Amino acid sequence: MSLKIRLTVMNFLEFAVWGAYLTSMGSYLAQVGQAENIGWFYSVQGIVSLFMPALIGIIADRWVEGQKLLGICHFLAGAFMFAASYYGTTAGADVVFSTLFSLYTLSVAFFMPTIALSNSVAYSVLDRAGMDTVKHFPPIRVFGTVGFICSMWVVDLGGMQQNALQFAFSGILSFILAFYVFTLPACPVDREGGSKSLSEALGLQAFRLFKIKKMAVFFIFSMLLGICLQITNGFANPFISSFSQIPEYADTFGVQHANILISLSQISETLCILLIPFFLHRFGIKIVMLMAMIAWVLRFAFFAMGDPGTGVWLFILSMIVYGVAFDFFNVSGSLFVDKETDIHIRSSAQGLFMVMTNGLGATIGTLGAQMVINKYVYNLQDATGHEIVEGWSTCWYLFAAYALVVAVLFAFVFHYKHVPEKQ
Questions:
Q1: Which of 38-42, 57-61, 196-200 ranks highest by mean pLDDT?
Q2: Which fold has domain 3-185+208-413?
């Protein structure tokens, strides 16, 4: 089996694990009386990303081969996800927040680092095989999104969208990947540390990238844009499902199969990933990032204006632009960091990128979004279905306005000379 196919399987499983619960967990939590705590479940992914990806990246750079560490992390993540599923299933509607949240947190603490680590493993294997990462990685990474979509469909059609079995499905996929990655080629580690300072031995030199102005500005705006990352993952499904309270929308496809409708976002991802090499070579990282920011504005605005009935086309447009919003930021940003950092701190630098985006950014964004949604949606007393939907629209417009401000600031503050040969 070729290296590219083996890495493709790895990426498929990596994101299938995440897709099993990421877009449907909000609806499950709402079903068991945890609607006002949805933000905490999504923000904890950001909280653990403040330190776990960097820590795991340091270990991969210095002491443990990347593919082995990836397998260990997935085994532990899968074990705790199974525990969360068992508890949620046995507790039924009497779920206690602290218990379910603790088990879920332990699982994502080991899963979140694997996103950056799987990128580093892929880059390392491709480099050692003499392949260009910008050319060969996007077609491999696209199958990660395919895996995410497949999981979403299995959860939706399998009736797991509003129960804890989605966690068990994720755990099974984690175990499969945990064993699979041990078959991949070994990733090099740098065990030389006798004459190095403690910070160098620990791989903390990745944080020195903040001394480089262009990298500091890039990471800061990555954090600001990262605020948008988990908002629709956490709240799109509960939002679309809320239309069930309005009779004219209750039986629409979108309300009945919100996860499948949302999966159009990931289908868009598969197409947009393939466009990244062209856009990076042609326009450079600044224009590509600006495209992502404008796409986030449209993503939120289309949600605000649409409905699952005659306005479903606006939902579909929102799903389409998501591919640009997510990929042109996340994947292009990862490739940019890979090209701008030294090979000896590659895993640490990828971990730092995760800290700024899925760490600080996603944590602030999800908790902030929960506060806004609690005010305009969940705190409404005796509200009609139409009033609830109007509350959701207000929230989406506020999120769109934020993304627009970030885009304008980035256009003026981030300066980077595009060199096609480098990008």
A1: 38-42
A2: Growth Hormone; Chain: A; (1.20.1250)
